[in-house]
Amino acid sequence: DAGVTQSPTHLIKTRGQHVTLRCSPISGHKSVSWYQQVLGQGPQFIFQYYEKEERGRGNFPDRFSARQFPNYSSELNVNALLLGDSALYLCASSSTTGTENTGELFFGEGSRLTVL
Amino acid sequence: AQRVTQPEKLLSVFKGAPVELKCNYSYSGSPELFWYVQYSRQRLQLLLRHISRESIKGFTADLNKGETSFHLKKPFAQEEDSAMYYCALLQGAQKLVFGQGTRLTINP
Questions:
Q1: Phi and psi of A95, rounded to 5°?
Q2: Do A58 and B97 touch (CB under 8 A)?
Q3: What are B25-29's contacts with CB under 8 Å, separation 24+?
Q4: Residue A85 DSSP SS3
Q5: A76 in the Ramachandran plot: left (φ > 0), alpha (ψ -120 to 50) or beta?
Q6: What band does A70 get if pLDDT is binned at 50, 70 and 90?
Q7: Cβ of A45 under 8 Å from any chain B Cβ?
Q8: What angle do CA A113, A114, B3 make, to 5 degrees?
Q9: What is d(CA A85, CA A50) in angstroms, rounded to the nearest whole number?
Q10: Nearest CB to B43: which of A44, A45, A107?
Q11: CB-based contact B12:B99 (threshold 8 Å)
Q12: Contact (CB, 8 A) for B12 and B103
């Protein structure tokens, strides 16, 4: 198993544009979470999805949205990009059942977004 | 609000010396705490969790509810321990709250 895979690995956008980031979880994992990591900070929770349903949302504006597909892959969308959205976006999958969480997340390598 | 604080951004010790990475938390309930590690050019990965009370790669961490701390310790540092270390708190069933991280450098 290749582990959690994310695409693209790097991308550059300009202010006001839209971006879509993609994530494929480890086979058998039904939960996907998204984290934003700004340089010099720890990862910050954005969303968690389980069985295609949103189970948790962090303190991010409505410009951020996500969804999970029947094959458990996920997309993170960010509209009207701001300079402050420049960050590493991490996807993580887990074997959580949706109501119980072991806290063990398997992270991808991330998508590094630069907004100019 | 739930918060995790790692007071040291950088920590440098010599090989063979003891290591302690500090982590303090604020949480109103019974906390579940973790240490994640990111080695150079590798993904962020779980190192250990307090609930399992295990030692991984010689590291241990004890939850001290009185001091609201979960410090990571190793008696004898090795060069391969050089990495970025994050303390994290499980909030609800959905999310991990991470600290800012500590970059540990082991000098030969």
A1: -95, 15
A2: no
A3: B25/B68, B25/B69, B25/B70, B25/B87, B25/B89, B26/B1, B26/B2, B26/B68, B27/B2, B27/B68, B27/B89, B27/B91, B28/B2
A4: helix
A5: beta
A6: very high
A7: yes
A8: 65
A9: 25
A10: A107
A11: no
A12: no
> What single letter denotes the amino acid at residue A62?
D
Q: Please give the Cα distance from A75 to B41 (Å, whole number).
A: 24
Q: By the CB < 8 Å criterion, does A86 face chain B?
A: no
Residues B50-85 pLDDT 10s: 877 788 899 999 899 999 999 999 999 999 999 999
pLDDT at B85 (0 to 100): 98
- DSSP code of residue A26: P
B44 touches chain A (CB under 8 A): yes
In whole angstroms, give the CA distance from residue A17 to residue A32. 25
Tokens of B36: 């994640």
Helix (H) or strand (E) holding B17: none
Question: Which residue of chain A has the CA closest to B84?
Answer: A42
B81 phi-psi bin (left φ>0, alpha ψ -120 to 50, beta other): alpha
The structure tokens 């094959």 sit at A71
